[in-house]
Amino acid sequence: MVYLVLLAMVAGFLALRLYMVLGKRTGHEQPLPKAAEERVVSPPLPRTIDVAPEQRDVPARNVEQGAEQGIRAIIAADPSFDVARFVDGAKSAYRMILEAFWQGDEATLEWLVDDDVRQSFAAAIADRKAAGHVLDNRLVSIERAVITDASLEGRSARIGVRIEADIAAVTRDAEGNLVSGSMTDAVATLEKWTFARTLKSSDPNWKLAETDEV
């Protein structure tokens, strides 16, 4: 009974942490699995000053020119959307998902991804365990995150974020012996993560819909 209570407390903590996050591979280890429609969890974005969408400035440092029209469409449909907060949340979610995947933490991944993505992650984690490998990775830094594209079809919004990061990647065997990688030699990674959400739905969370190397 105490165990069940502790599980409930952990789940509640994770939900609260995610609510505060999002508006949210590396060279030597396995890449993140790519489901057909992978999808990172993100809490509702804060409301901004009530300005008409067409008058709202889209921060150039956070949004590439090709994404501006899509972002304005999303703002028009959901005035609470805030670009800077979304990008910050995407970076936090990037860290949370990577760490959960590396650690084989399927309970945390369940909060962060939908069923299809969870199944892909679970399969990759199972393969890793079958090989007797453990990932000892560390996200050293996220150098930059920028929105590269955005779209709105009906109420379905999608936002692509290009993330530049440095990751120290090490694979060990079950006894802790080094299989590959180095903790002192960070690997530069460049990926595009696409987030999706149905606007005005009861679920306020954005979810990871797709991951691609750039």
Task: Describe the protein.
- This protein has helices at 2-19, 68-77, 83-103, 106-112, 115-130, and strands spanning 133-135, 138-153, 156-173, 178-198, 207-213.
- The chain has 214 residues and is α+β, with helices and mostly antiparallel strands.
- Strands 1, 2, 3, 4 and 5 form a five-stranded antiparallel sheet that branches.
What's the gist of this structure?
By secondary structure, this protein is an alpha+beta fold. Helix content is 34%, strand content 30%.
What attributes does this structure have?
214 residues; alpha+beta; globular; disordered N terminus
Class per helix and strand makeup: alpha+beta
Shape: globular
Given as residue ranges, the uncertain stretches (5+ residues, pLDDT < 50) are 1-21, 23-29, 35-55
Radius of gyration: 18 Å
Q: Could you state the oligomeric state of the chains shown?
A: single chain
Major beta sheet, specifics? 5 strands, antiparallel
How far the N terminus sits from the C terminus, by CA atoms, comes to: 48 Å
Please indicate the percent range of residues in DSSP E strands (runs of 2 or more): 25-35%
Query: Helical region count?
Result: 5
On the 0-100 scale, what is the average pLDDT?
A: 79
What is the helix/strand order?
Answer: HHHHHEEEEE
Number of strands: 5
Estimate the helix proportion, in percent: 25-40%
